[in-house]
Amino acid sequence: MDTPDVIWEAVGLRKLSLVSYDEFLDAIGVCRDDLPWWRKLLPFQGCIRSELLSAVTINTYNQEVARMNGLSGLVSFVPTKGSLFSVEGGNYRLVESALNQARATRRQKCIGRSEYEQRVRHIAREVTAVIGDLDTGMEVFSGEESQGNYDLVILAAPLQHCNIDFYITSHLDGAVLQPMHLGAIKEEEGEGEEFKNMREHISSVLPSSAERSYMQVITTVLSNATLQETYFNITSAKIPRSIYFSDKGKELENVFTITHLTSDGNFKVFSQTELSAVDVIRMFGSSANVEHVKVWGGRNGGATPDFDGGGDASAPAPFLLYDGGKMTEGHGFGPALYYANAMESAVAAVEISAIGAKAIAKLCAA
């Protein structure tokens, strides 16, 4: 199980990840923007692709149909129907729960070991660098402060937006650092002294999915708000729980999703940029209060990947980004760097991240 492609192939979804959503919709006969002339003569006719499907993909991934691959396009419909689960208190509590379970499992399985050997620690630090060494393992740094040495490191953030530098020590001088070669290994073959140590003649190959941009989303939570009926051309009796905007609507309004959270005037809004005071009053009235604004973007990338229409853009990075065992002349051991976010090459969701995490855990235990 080297890459997520193996998982998608096993469940029959790999082909969907490689084609564009447009190609998939063409294959099943969903109309494009141009309606047949006879449908234009009938009332209440529209294009399901540019109106409904586009609004759904924009709500979930802030991307039009043309930028989605087939798999992510179908997954974008999950929030629209059926029973959904949410984490009380927010998704960040998943990490807290995982740590608690890890501690309990380790105490149960490591009977007779010291308290130090049994402990599972949570170190709240911003990691800025990881340095691999064949003798000492992976040393993790927060600024200039070392956070310890580890046999294995798992990266659970987009590689291109994690703001972490990855290095290895030179075999000639441990004080000299070289870039860590990430991704598939391409070994150069040859004879002579210049090829004696393979570490100096290895290049890394990463797919475009490990370098692409992420989509910015601004989340705004409002209280004491009233959806303005005149502005949205609706009546109070027909106010829906959620309003999804098509690509044309997003372009005009900057907003692409409005969700009515509670009956006492709490709303959540997804937009491309921060809402101005004028925007808030125009949509929610002068009494509306902005309670919270979260910017999913900037130096940390964004909310979800830009899927770029599938095809080669969906090719995933390997789960094993760096294998120090390949640098030990066949001995097969050494520090390793794993990449849980490799799963996001084709589709992004918290459930998909969980699948990636489980795959990594199995590879580490193998």
Describe this structure in words.
With 366 residues, the chain is α+β, with helices and mostly antiparallel strands. It has helices at 4-10, 14-18, 21-27, 37-40, 48-61, 70-75, 93-109, 115-118, 229-232, 247-253, 277-284, 350-365; strands spanning 129-133, 137-142, 145-150, 152-155, 165-169, 177-179, 184-187, 202-205, 214-215, 217-223, 242-244, 255-262, 266-271, 289-296, 304-305, 320-323, 336-339. The chain is built from 12 helices and 17 strands. A hairpin with a 7-residue loop joins strand 5 and strand 6. The relative contact order is 0.17. The strands form 5 sheets. Strands 3-2-1-5-6 form a 5-stranded mixed β-sheet, with no helix packed on it.
Number of strands: 17
Overall helicity: 25-40%
Q: Could you tell me the mean pLDDT?
A: 86
Strand percent estimate: 15-25%
Gyration radius (Cα, Å) is 25 Å
Structural class: alpha+beta
- The succession of helices and strands, N to C, reads HHHHHHHHEEEEEEEEEEHEHEEHEEEEH
Strand line-up across the major sheet: 3-2-1-5-6
Give the CA-based shape.
Answer: globular
Please, how many helices?
12
Main β-sheet description: 5 strands, mixed
N- to C-terminal separation?
11 Å
Detail the poorly predicted runs: 190-203
